[in-house]
Amino acid sequence: MIVLDTASWIWLAADPDCLSKRAKKTIDRDHELLVPAISVWEVAMLVAKRRIELDRSVEDWIDTALSLPGVTLAPLSPAVALQSTKLPGEFHPDPADRMIVATALQHAVPVLTPDARIHDYPHVQSIW
User: Fold this and answer.
1) Which of 7, 14, 56, 118 is deepest in the core (most CB within 10 A)?
2) H or E stretch including 117?
3) DSSP result, 21-83
4) CATH number of the CATH domain containing 25
5) Are 117 and 97 in contact (CB under 8 A)?
C-alpha cells in the first residue's frame, strides 16, 4: 500500500509519462493506492484557480480518477485531521500536504510524491 499525493494522482490519471520510472514501477508493483480525500479538494481548487485544466468536468474527472485500478479513496478521518496538526518535527504549513503526510503516517506506508518538501521530511518515507 502507498499513498499518492495530489500531483502523483493527477499524473497517474491524466499523463502517466510525467511519473518517474521509480514511481511507475512502484504503482505497477503495489496493488493498493490510497488517495487522501484532501486531494479531491485540492484538484477542485486547482481547477477553480485555473492552475490546471482537465479534459472534462472536475466531477467526471474525479469519478474516473478514483475508479482507476487499485485506487482507493482514504477518507479524512478524525485521527488524520488531528495528526496533521501534530506532525513531529518541522513541516511546512500547507494543510493539504499535512493531511497527505498524516494519512501515510496513519497507515504506516510511504507517500509517492515529487514534492521535495515531503522528501525532506524525515518522519515519513517517500518515493519518487
Assistant:
1) 118
2) helix 116-119
3) HHHHHHHHH-S-EEEEHHHHHHHHHHHHTTSS--SS-HHHHHHHHHTSTTEEEE---HHHHHH
4) 3.40.50.1010
5) yes
Domain count, the chain: 1
Domain carrying residue 81:
2-127
State the Cα–Cα distance between residues 10 and 89, nearest whole angstrom.
29
| Angle in degrees, CA 58, 11, 120, rounded to 5 | 115
> pLDDT tens across 16-30, in order?
999 999 999 999 997
CA distances (Å), origin 125, targets 13, 36, 41, 96, 121? 23, 16, 24, 17, 8
Q: What is the DSSP letter of 17?
A: G
Residues paired with 33 in a beta bridge? 2, 71
Write down the pTM of the prediction.
Answer: 0.96
Neighbours of 90 (CB within 10 A): 9
